[in-house]
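This is your field. Have a critical look at both lines of this record:
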Amino acid sequence: MLRTLLVWQPDRLVKVTPIYRNGGTVPLSFPMFQQLQDNQRVFSELFGWIGSFRRNLEVDSARFLASVHGASGNYYGALGATPWLGRLVGSDDAAANPGAPIAVLLDMNSGSTSLAVIRA
């Protein structure tokens, strides 16, 4: 079951985003984020996320349209989240298998959750 995260020291969180001259924000590409994450020396952690987007997914041969939210591997750990059961997916999971399918936890809006694999 998904739940609202209680963030450790929420007053210390800041959002980093490029800004156009007119004040509009510019989304970071993943390569830009990786370079920032690898080279920054200011923050104790730097994590990324992407808002909701719709994707066709398949679980156990059943296809459906789902709302997907993306996050960097250190997202939950940096926020101090702890799982109710099992473990969190982390940066090591992606680093160990570059180019491998991405595992995600889906809320099926039916009170249950499913583990799915999205092939990149």
